[in-house]
Design goal:
The protein is mostly helical and 212 residues long. It folds into 2 domains: 97 residues, no CATH class; 108 residues. It is 54% helix and 6% strand. It is built from 10 helices and 2 strands, in the order H-H-E-E-H-H-H-H-H-H-H-H. Helix 2 packs across helix 4. The longest helix has 19 residues.
C-alpha cells in the first residue's frame, strides 16, 4: 500500500491496533474522500483506546472489491461506513454488523443509537432483542468501560426525540424506539456492573413518564 495520508491513519485508529493490517486492506478498496473526517470520538474497547470518526465522506467501494475482503475486513469496512454522512448508507452498512457481538463493533452501534434516524433506531432495537447472552455482555462491558460516552448517548437520544419526534407519532418518550434501545443498553450494563445503571431521561418532562 502507498504511504498513508493523515485521514487514512485516522481511520486505522478507529480499531484496536491488532487490526491495523486488516484496516489498511480495507482502506485500499475505499474510494478516496474529498474531505478528511471532521473530528472523532474516543472510546475504550477491551482496555484499548480507539478514536472513531464522526463522519466519513468516501464513496462506497464496488461490490467486487468488497467480496475480495476477508470476513473481518468486511466487518471493519461496514463499521466505517456506518459513520457515513448519508443516513441511508449508514443504515445499509449497520445492517451488516448490528447482530455481531464482536467488541470492536459495539461502539459503532451505540453511537448510532444516539443519532436521529428513526429507521436506524428501529434496526438497533430489533437486533438487540435477538442477541444471545455473550452479545448482550459485550454491550454491557462496553458501557461499563465508557460511562461518560453512554451518558452523552442517553442525552442525545432524549434531545433528538424532543427536537424531531415528540410532536408526532412518538409524543410519549416511552413509545419511542430510542427509549427501548436505552432500556436494552442499560439492562446490559446493569448485568455487567452488578448494579442498576442510571437513566438520564429527565423526570417531569412533557411526554416523559419518569425515567424511560
Amino acid at each position: 500500500m502507498q504511504q498513508l495520508t493523515d485521514g487514512q491513519r485516522s481511520l486505522i485508529a478507529a480499531f484496536p491496533a491488532e487490526f491495523a493490517g486488516d484496516a489498511e486492506v480495507v482502506l485500499a478498496v475505499m474510494p478516496a474522500s474529498r474531505f478528511a473526517p471532521p473530528g472523532s470520538f474516543p472510546v475504550v474497547v477491551q482496555g484499548e483506546r480507539v478514536s472513531i470518526p464522526e463522519r466519513i465522506y468516501n464513496g462506497e467501494p464496488v461490490a467486487g472489491a468488497v467480496e475480495s475482503l476477508s470476513r473481518r475486513q468486511r466487518q471493519l469496512l461496514h463499521c466505517l461506513y456506518s459513520r457515513h454522512h448519508d443516513g441511508r448508507v449508514r443504515q445499509r452498512h449497520l445492517a451488516e454488523v448490528v447482530g455481531s457481538a464482536d467488541p470492536w463493533v459495539v461502539p459503532y452501534v451505540v453511537r448510532l443509537a444516539g443519532e436521529y434516524v428513526l429507521e436506524i433506531l428501529v434496526d438497533i432495537r430489533n437486533a438487540l432483542r435477538d442477541l444471545d447472552a455473550p452479545g448482550v455482555g459485550a454491550y454491557g462491558q462496553f458501557i461499563v468501560d465508557n460511562p461518560e460516552f453512554f451518558a452523552r448517548t442517553q442525552r442525545r437520544v432524549v434531545s433528538y426525540w424532543s427536537c424531531y419526534y415528540r410532536e408526532g407519532v412518538h409524543a410519549s418518550f416511552r413509545g419511542y424506539p430510542g427509549c427501548t434501545v436505552l432500556d436494552q443498553l442499560r439492562s446490559a450494563a446493569a448485568e455487567s456492573a452488578g448494579r442498576p445503571w442510571p437513566s438520564l431521561a429527565p423526570r417531569g418532562w412533557a411526554g416523559v413518564d419518569g425515567y424511560c
